[in-house]
Amino acid sequence: MEAALPPPPGLVPNFSHPPRSLGYGIRAYAAFSAALCSVLISIRLFTRIIILRKLEIDDYTCIFSWVFLVALTVLCQFTVINGAGLHQWNMSIEQFKDLLIYVYVAKVLYLFVLLPIKITIILQLRRFFAPHSYLASYKVLTWLLIISTALAISSLLTDVFQCHPIRKAWEFDIPGKCITSPVVHSYTASVNMATDFAILLLPAYWIWKLKIAVTKRIQISLLFVGGIVACLGSILHLYEARQMVKKADQSYMAGRLFLWCLLEVVGGFISSCLPVHPIFFRAIRAGSIKAVRHDPSSGAFRRNTEEDLIGQSGASSRDPTDSKVRYPDPDAISLHYLQEEDQFRR
Fold first, then answer.
1. What domains are there in the chain, each with its CATH number?
2. Cβ(303)–Cβ(328) below 8 Å
3. What b/e string do you get for 176-214 counting C-beta neighbours within 10 Å, with b at 16 or more?
4. Which terminus in the chain has less CB density within 10 A, N or C?
């Protein structure tokens, strides 16, 4: 049996019992990431459906992304079983071809996870920071949405049609032409990193322009901390993609690359879901979820002031047993309002 890659000097290919330490780590990490994202989106949807009783387009795009994340997690298990994270000299050529099929599908699924979650975040930011279409921030975020979508589609098409014929992406010994796979990875990683940083820096810029207390700025900023995680994932993704250009051990590098792709996805889910969570936990503390569910006429679904969302409400002045506690709609956040509200408090 011929190895898919000649081993380094002094090593002998081990086809029967190759070491799989990285592979086991990838499988566990993928399962943990999917579980964490499932918890995050469950709280988001519970808040939207049960407490606010209002679903928006970004809720559906978030669900769409989560469905593909579950599919990607399942595929990850099979990808590792077929050699992801395994040194290529411990695989036969046929095993390596099988792995390339799974990697090809995983790259497509990854983009189907990432694009909807980015759309979710941008639509959410547009409601938070640009409640009116005439605002410059609304136009900036709309263009960011268009550019992010266009770049993601271009990455998807590049991944799908990197080879002619397409099956040469895994049947590398048949006639045809391909864009080098590591180059494709680098392009995808660069595009994702650029949009991740734009999504992180724009709200940070708007928040820190506010003429409000520093503590309040920090509280609002913490709701978007997932953007830092996503940017870290995209940086490491790009680094590993560039390393793939230099190294021949593609099966092992593919496993490492998968880790950082998942980190980027987790950061996206944190960014998209965390801003809604304060409403859920405030409802828990108020002990009024049951009342809200059984008494929709109680006024509990009326929009409250935006300060509730960022933990600056006068909750201490409210009776926590009051079943008519009103919950904020995250769509109502307005930077102009936050400035006025802070000046009023002064």
1. 21-275 (1.20.1070), 280-345 (no CATH)
2. yes
3. eebeebbbbbbbbbbbbbebbebbbebbbebbeebebee
4. C
Task: Quickly tell me which residue has 């600056």 as its tokens.
Answer: 312
- The Cα-based distances of 226 to 1, 22, 258 in angstroms read 47, 26, 19
Q: Does the pTM of the predicted model rise above 0.85? A: no
Indicate the residue type of 233.
Answer: G
Q: Are 83 and 258 in contact (CB under 8 A)?
A: no
Residue of 40, 77, 49 lying closest to 266 (CA atoms): 40
Place of tokens 């949405």: 145
For residues 136 and 71, give the distance between their C-alpha atoms in angstroms, rounded to a whole number.
38
Give percent helix, percent strand, percent coil of the chain, each to the nearest 5.
Answer: 75, 0, 25
**In this predicted structure, what is the pLDDT of residue 289?**
59
DSSP output for 123-161: HHHHHHH--STTSHHHHHHHHHHHHHHHHHHHHHHHHHT
Residue with tokens 């992180």: 200
Q: Is the pLDDT of residue 138 over 60?
A: yes
What percent of the chain is modeled with pLDDT above 70?
82
Q: Is 321's pLDDT higher than 60? A: no
pLDDT at 101 over 90: yes
∠ at Cα 269 (265, 272), nearest 5°? 135
Cα 155 off chain centre by: 16
Is the pLDDT reported for residue 249 higher than 80? yes
CA dist 245 and 242 (Å) reads 5
